[in-house]
Predict the 3D structure of the following.
Amino acid sequence: MTILQALKIIDNEVGILMLDFICRFRKEQGTLPENPVAVTTIVSTDMVNDIAADFGVEIRRGLTGFKYIGEIIGVLEKNGQPDRYLFGFEESCGYLKGTYARDKDAVVASMLIVEMAAWYKKQGKTLFDAMQALYEKYAMYCEGVVNIVESGIDGPEKIAGMIQKVRTDCPREIGGVKVDALRDYVTGEVTYFDGGKGSTNLPKSNMLYLEKFSLPSDYTEIQFIRFENRTCFNTMYPFKIFPDKELEHIGFSPVTIFYGGNGSGKTTLLNVIAQKLHAARQSEFNNSPFFGEYVDYCRCELAKRPQEIRYISSDDVFDYVLDLRNINEGIDTRREEASETYFELKSKISDPEERRFKGLDDYDRWKEIHDAAAKKNSLSKYVKKNVGKNLDMCSNGETAMKFFVDRIGENALYLLDEPENSLSIKLQTELADFIYDSARFFGCQFIIASHSPIFLSMKNARIYNLDSAPVRTCDWTELENVRIWYDFFMEHKNKFE
């Protein structure tokens, strides 16, 4: 029997005590980080929310398993915010105080428990007493687990059937206790039985802003064209841009991708959505006299309003790269001129003619020569002083990657038009990981036009194939562009073995 069992303290309660203890002491010592983060799982106690709210701590939840806590730590580190991490725990006796590991640490956890016990003992309390005090302060939380086992070859099917039955026909009362809500971690929805819907506590549930988007029906388009009297135009773009596609209603996921070849309409569709949502944008787009009227016929459903809606095109990235290059080239030119001036001035230090002063201008000239010749002023120091350094020394691809990282924040909706342009395969992979993490952990939603296999393979992405008629969602492995790559590498498989 452990000391905790003797005191009748269970796993979740230990996590609560530790979080309260860490927050309390770091606040007193003035070492509580700005925007601190504590991490737990979807099956851990909800009491953690009360403790966190008291100390201004953000709670992030992952799926069951400590690896998901480690994953969130990794995301904080990737974003240069490791100091925000405060503490992580799960209900199955797993606790981690620092970022040095990606799994539970019993050694440090034991030290924390002993430290807490000693501190409370000085106050004449046990850890059990401390837990009761927290219950009195916040509320009583009761928890329990019912294990259901179905053996045999059809056991998994029976379990799956039970889960599906709960999903479709959830009981409103269990053992005389009213059921308030159904949390579905597959759909990310919470159904409240007294009315209304919400989202689960998983980070990904907070990322869905745009739920549905409707384009004008075929009938609406026909009627518009029929009664339109402006005959001077040979096209009414974007009307009839999606003939036979049956693309009237579009549903969205945290990451939604429009796939298609050149001329399939994926960029047009992205621009239509961006205009309807009044997205902030930098570059111009292929507009027309009819674009605004087409957008007016569209309908969208927002679950909630994001902090930002931004459209980023490949042209935005190219312009950014070119601007930096032009600035740096200008600096390089001025640097060459400064180098020539430096050597010219230095060569005149021994020239007696330069010592003849006729006025203040001569003195300023001599001072300039003297400063250039001084030992403390090397060529590099002189150039840096008079010109400055380059704004960016990265390659075009690295600069493009930096462009996305700098502009993608939290709790926002982003529309990206072919973000793979200018990026190597390695950088595409890094950006895809960054997008996935931003959607899962930082409350972002992405709508992407792309034909890159790297982006198309993102986990749980909803893909619309605009090359098919009618347009349908499909798995990334079904797409022609991906199959071409697959066939290519299979043809040369022996080269890799």
